[in-house]
Structure formats: C-alpha cells, structure tokens
Amino acid sequence: MGYYASWATGSGLPPSSIDASLLTHLNYAFADISSQNKLVLANPTTDRNNFKGLRSLKEANPHLVTLISVGGWDYSTNFSSAASTASSRATFAQSCVDFIVEHGFDGVDLDWEFPSASDRKNFTLLLREVRSKLDELSAKNGRPYYLTIAGAPNRSFLNNIEPQAVASLVDYIFLMGYDMHGPWDNYADLTAPLYPANEDSPHYANSVSEAVQLYLNAGVSASKIVLGMPLYGYRYSVYDGRDDGLFGSFSSAKSIGFDLIKKNYLSDSSFDQYYHSDARVPYLFDGETFISYDDEDSVAEKASYARSKGLAGIGAWELSHNKNFQLLKSARRALLNS
Asked: Where does the GH18 domain start and stop, copy by copy (predicted)?
C-alpha cells in the first residue's frame, strides 16, 4: 500500500500519474476531525479535485482499494474528543460512513498521532463503533469496507492502546517503520534501520525489526501488520563527530524525499556513500552534510524481512517522494519473489 498526500499533485504527482499496478491499497492523507467530532475535508478545493482523480484511477484499476486517512501529525487534535463518549463516537463513525459514500472510498484509516494513556479504552471503543457502521454498510451494499490504523514503532504507542482488541477490529495496522531518529534528536542517526546498529553510540537504539517484535509480543498477529517504509530521509548539518558523520552533533536537520536525494546528492562526487552492515540501510556524508535514507536495496531487504515474518504486506510514506516508483517496484519484487 502507499500513502498519497493532498499536496502530492502540487509536487508533480497527480492521481493520474500513480502506477496503480504496483498497489493493492492507497490511503489518501489526510482528512480532519471537526470540533463537532465529524470527519471533514482538510483542504476542500484540493481534496475534491484529488478525489475526482482517484475515482478515475479506480475506474481504470478496479482492484485498487482506496481509504481516506484521518489525522496525521496536523489533524489529530480532535481525536481524543471524538473517542471520549458514546455519543461522540457514534457521530464520528456515522460521519466516516457518510464521507466514504460521498467521495467514493472503500474505507477509513485512522492515523491518530498519538493516543495518550487516558485514551486507551476509548480508542478501542471508537474503532468498534466505526467497524460496526462499516459492517452495516457492507451488509447493505454487499461489498467489503475497510478499517485500518497507523501505528507508531515504539512501546509507548502500544502501551496507550489495547493492541489485541485493536487488531481484532481492523483489517490491518500500518506500522510506521520510520522516524526512528530525526531532527528532534541530539545526534545524526539512521532514519529507519532494519536491524540494530551494534556499535558504540551516544544515542538510544531502535530498529524496524525491534518494532515488529514489539507488536508481535503484544499479541498482534503478523497477518495484521503492514510494514511501512520511508520514501524519504533526513539531511543533517553536522559540525562534529565521526569521519562518516554518523552520530555527529548537528545544527539543523530536515526531511528530504528520495527523488531529491538522488538528483542532488547521489550523483555528487563530494559525498561518500556508506551502507551500514548491521542496520542494512545506506547513508551519505561529505564532511558537513549527513543524509540517512533508504534505497532500492534496503527497501527490498525490508520487504523480504516482512515476508519472512509472515506480515500482511508492505507500505510506503509517501508516494510523491519517488515519482517513478523505483523504490516501491524494488520492494514489491522482493515481496513477491522472495
């Protein structure tokens, strides 16, 4: 599956340019939640134009399942309110059904960033209400409607939900296997290491494989987990540290899509290219700029890992970061041919 963001058209990837043959599911990011606990358009003009394009894409590719993704980092403010009472949950769930019927989606993806400990039971109750409404719609129309969530790759997220109950209500959980490190940290580090970097480090350690194991240990079936991968990395301005830049202190950092990494840095001879033998991901360094990212080899290895663990599949954030889909193609080949 792949996330397609509302701003992707503006960055050069309209819905008509999506290679739907590479996807089974596409999540449109993001819808908002109003103060009345209803699912609403976040960017009405842009969203409506994109929805029209997605409906045309579905007509040409009948296999493609599209879901409206709710929340994300910018639009999760009202999730707690929507989940808080039976009345608010019913309002939200009915608005989800109304939304997908109006705009031609096949389901809803809840990307709550992030529930707190006080939301733990209410999150389950919210999902149960949405699931019930979608099941009613399925019975009425004689076709399936889907409910999914996005989950953070850490123990604190799992502690703030009821993992087994949640997993029983959703079709799958998109495990966000990225942002293991980033601009919020003190040191330049790897964005999405598949395995732990077994070396001395001033940093906290984590990895995709450890995150998957956390979910499995929490009682989530492997068949409910979709392993999410980044089509982007982070670029750090490093001012001290090792010769390869890893674990260096930095003055600034920001995200950068794979297309820009390839265009501006992979062809620049001033950058040395590295591949971490433990973590199984690449990085670049020129003495000042450190870039952690994923390439065709690393996403393929992650896809093979997902298959070896019996996971439901693989996914990516976000499609417009790699407009010719070379990373998705590489991951898909590995998933299907392993």
From this structure: 1-338
